[in-house]
Design goal:
alpha+beta, 18% helix, 13 helices, 684 residues, four-stranded antiparallel sheet, eight-stranded mixed sheet, 36 strands
């Protein structure tokens, strides 16, 4: 559940340092260990040097000792080995950006003084801090001539705020306690060292949420909102800042979100994204694309001929480029800014997450994955797209018993065509019947796709190795299948979603490959909500796990931080239409609940606040249904630390082990520590 228009390896011998030795695990758990799955290093974004020769990218991995995920910057050149460029003690380095001449690589890191901008010579040497600002920096970007870097920065606490706390202690007024974010700039010094920052924008009339330098470096187009509250993205507009004079000119000012301003290569136009005319449906309808003259005027619609919701990633001399879903593939599209004619520019790898071009548009780096690989860095000429893989993160899972995945399709109860991903054990036998685990993605505009490995809190590959099937349905509302499909669960949340899940189960049962006495379902966020709906409306599953799920739409509506989400999908407030809130709420059907249910929830979840968990738990207890509520201390909507993810994975392994396999499982406390000690001192 997220707002839509919010303002986007290593060679084989290098992997041992990233992944480390395989961890021991209870002998009753087959397949790769939970800890090894959660320890897999993963590539983030990649940026290509101006000459197209080198690519900087981020790699994230688990630091179990510090219980955090660490991110560092790596570098790879065509024909050479990748190597780690930054090593940030007690923190991470991220957001690499090349200077226009390729001399420096700027990045963000917190090395004890907040998030600051650092520079490093990619040919070697130590990084040095360019900024030293209170509150730290947000986003940043080089000016086209490489002499300046603009960045966003949140305002400091005012003297009045400090005095208020001194006299009256700490309290907050809902929807009124925030700090604006504004644009600042630093000049690149002649010698390494921090420099004083210059303020570019100020005031309480708007907060800056994204920006883009003009090609000549004289102006900055920026997206701004009324305030930084989470729902204010729907009021985003675009303005132009003249850097020398400080004059600000409003460029796009209309109802609804307008953002992601992107300059044309000649500096005459700015492309941007916008909502359609119906502001009451922006969570699930396709966005629109416009271009407007940089001097102002009437916006011109770019009639992009895609029935999906992609986003602008670059405008180069070769065209305007978008990235978006097409069923379970994620493509790079090239668009003619005048006609809107769209073509697939990059159809491989199967799913492209990010793309970055050289300034001339002739060479690009991208990060993507296939159905059999992890995320990798690729390089290609833009004139003749032939991606060359430069990393080998997939070597981390060589030899793993991870099963195999494939796309399947079926017809839902109302005739809607649904796709999903079916994971099978390596030794799958179509003449056998298997336990079935259904994992339901969030969103609802999330999407599942074939992949060799899955992580987070569900032990998918251990279940496969144990001899089970895993189904991940792309129920109505999922991304990739067009606006009409995304709209099918409007005023039908949970109800239609359950049709899609259960009909997918029926499809596999009809093939004779499912043991219907051993089926389970689970999901997180929207997937947790659908799981909760299933636990109170059907008895077909032997066990269910509800992760950060909604149990009552009224409870959710009055507690969540994104109230418009509910109003848009249910088309009413609870006070206007109580019936639709009842029809789609799991708690309405609590009296018929009978399925043993595990509930997992973050203590400080704002997106799906924890009262939803307590309400479902108490209702199940009142009905005498075996249930367990586990609260992960200190977490919000997601579990973001490796140790708690490991715990949550064990909790799911225990729950479904009990009800699908009849096993009473103890969580090991020291098995992995003992294994590491034996490796360190094999003589004992």
């Amino acid at each position: 559940m997220s707002s839509r228009l919010s303002v986007a390896t290593v060679l084989v011998f290098g992997l041992a340092a990233l992944a480390g030795p395989l961890s021991a695990q209870s002998p009753d758990v087959p397949g790769p260990s939970f800890k090894d799955v959660l320890s897999l290093s993963d590539i983030g974004g990649a940026v290509i040097s101006p000459d197209g020769d080198a690519i900087a990218y981020t790699v994230s991995g688990a630091d179990w000792e510090e219980n955090r995920y660490d991110t560092e910057i790596w570098l790879v050149r065509q024909g050479e080995e990748p190597y780690q460029l930054t090593r940030t003690e007690d923190g991470s380095s991220s957001s690499p950006q090349w200077s226009p001449d390729g001399r420096w690589l700027a990045f963000a890191a917190d090395r004890g003084d907040g998030r600051q901008i650092y520079l490093i010579d990619p040919r070697g040497g130590e990084a040095w801090a360019l900024t030293e600002v209170d509150e730290g920096v947000g986003g940043f970007a080089w000016s086209p001539d490489g002499t300046r870097i603009a960045f966003t920065r949140s305002e400091e606490d005012s003297e009045a705020d400090e005095q208020r706390e001194e006299h009256y202690g700490a309290y907050a007024v809902e929807d009124a306690e925030y700090r604006m974010t504004h644009l600042w700039m630093v000049e690149l010094p002649d010698e390494p060292g921090t420099v004083e920052a210059t303020r570019l924008t100020e005031g309480d009339e708007f907060t800056v949420s994204g920006f883009d330098w003009s090609p000549d470096g004289s102006r900055i187009a920026f997206e701004h909102r009324p305030d930084p509250l989470i729902n204010s993205w729907m009021g985003a507009d675009i303005a132009i800042l003249d850097v020398e004079s400080g004059e600000i000119t409003l460029l796009v000012d209309r109802d609804g979100p307008d953002g992601n301003p992107t300059w044309s290569p000649d500096g005459r136009w700015i492309a941007y994204q916008s909502s359609g005319p119906d502001m009451g449906s922006v969570y699930y309808t396709n966005g629109l694309f416009y271009r407007i003259r940089a001097e102002g005027g009437e916006p011109v619609r770019i009639p992009v001929d895609l029935d999906e919701d992609p986003f602008i990633t670059a405008w180069t001399p070769r065209g305007l480029f978008l990235v978006g879903w097409e069923r379970t593939a994620r493509r790079v599209y090239r668009v003619d800014p005048s006609s809107g004619r769209t073509e697939v520019f990059a159809g491989s790898p199967d799913r492209v997450w990010s793309v970055d071009f050289t300034p001339d548009g002739n060479t690009l780096a991208l990060v993507g994955r296939t159905a059999t690989s992890l995320d990798e860095v690729y390089r290609s000429s833009a004139g003749r797209f032939r991606p060359e893989r430069l990393t080998n993160m997939t070597a981390q899972i060589d030899g793993w018993e991870a099963g195999r995945s494939e796309l399947i399709s079926w017809e839902s109860s109302d005739g809607t065509a649904i796709e999903g991903v079916l994971h099978k054990p390596d030794d799958f036998d179509p003449s056998r019947q298997y336990p079935l685990l259904v994992i339901i993605h969030g969103g609802p505009t999330g999407i599942d796709y074939p992949t060799p490995i899955l992580s987070y809190v569900y032990p998918v590959h251990q279940w496969l190795a144990k001899g089970a099937l895993v189904l991940r349905p792309n129920y109505r509302g999922s991304a990739g299948y067009g606006e009409e499909f995304r709209s099918l669960n409007v005023r039908n949340l949970g109800v239609g979603d359950a049709w899609d899940v259960l009909s997918g189960v029926d499809r596999l049962v009809a093939q004779g490959i499912v043991d219907t006495t051993r089926m389970g379902a689970m999901g997180w966020s929207q997937g947790g909500y659908i799981s909760a709906y299933l636990t109170t409306t059907t008895d077909r599953f032997a066990a269910i796990s509800v992760g950060a799920g909604i149990s009552n739409w009224v409870t959710y509506y009055v507690n969540t931080d994104i109230h418009p989400f509910t109003r848009q999908y249910l088309k009413a407030t609870p006070w206007e239409d109580s019936e639709v809130y009842a029809k789609t709420s799991p708690m309405t059907f609590i009296n018929q609940a009978s399925t043993p249910t595990l509930i997992q929830h973050g203590e400080f979840d704002r997106r799906v606040p924890i009262p939803n968990a307590y309400e479902l738990y108490q209702g199940l207890r009142d009905m005498g249904v075996d249930s367990k509520l586990i609260v992960y201390k200190g977490f919000g909507h997601g579990i973001s630390k490796p140790k708690e993810r490991l715990a949550a994975m064990w909790h799911n392994w225990q729950w479904f082990g009990k009800y699908l396999w009849g096993e009473e499982i103890e969580m090991p406390i020291d098995v992995e520590d003992e294994a590491e000690e034996e490796k360190a001192d094999p003589g004992g």
